[in-house]
């Protein structure tokens, strides 16, 4: 495509092609869906915006329109997803200047957030009510989360191979994608999420009995169905 045609291209079309070129196959499906959703919002808010008209003012107007119905942090996330494509357009000579420079992030007032954790007293009450039988069930799952602090998707991905009872440690090296119908293993969020987690002796003894005879490479809790 010639430079003049690139400048005439609609911004959402450029962003769509940029996603396919740089993000498709390089990011996790859930992240790719976020990029697609961002592009859909661009189509809704600025369907006629062309690359040649993308400047600091038009970009600020786009962010302002988005911010009318979103909180400040969400607007910041929206901006960060678009910014990479815009900087590439500057590098490619499609844009003469960086329109994201000195932009202002706005947003509607943040709503009151619901508490997403249990305090120590509530946790102890929950643990006392668990029905911990001789076979794996979701109560054992809750106990393991409480004792280790694992993320939900990390605990779902645990297999018997991840337990080292000689050192009483768990290997965290994958997660379980429970957002698709069949479920599947996927990498952890980042490299630093790969780690060893210490088990207390009682939990280690309990799980050494619970997972006897289970397929060593299959998830203990998750099945290949949606949660």
UniProtKB/TrEMBL annotation:
Superkingdom classification of source: Bacteria
InterPro entries the UniProt entry points to: DNA_brk_join_enz (IPR011010), Integrase-like_cat_sf (IPR013762), Integrase_catalytic (IPR002104), Integrase_recombinase_N (IPR010998)
PROSITE patterns: TYR_RECOMBINASE (PS51898)
GO biological process, one term: DNA integration
SUPFAM superfamilies associated with the record: DNA breaking-rejoining enzymes
Keyword DNA-binding tagged: yes
Record domain Tyr recombinase: where: 113-227
Identification of the protein by name: Integrase
Organism: Tetragenococcus muriaticus PMC-11-5
Biological classification of the source: Bacteria, Bacillati, Bacillota, Bacilli, Lactobacillales
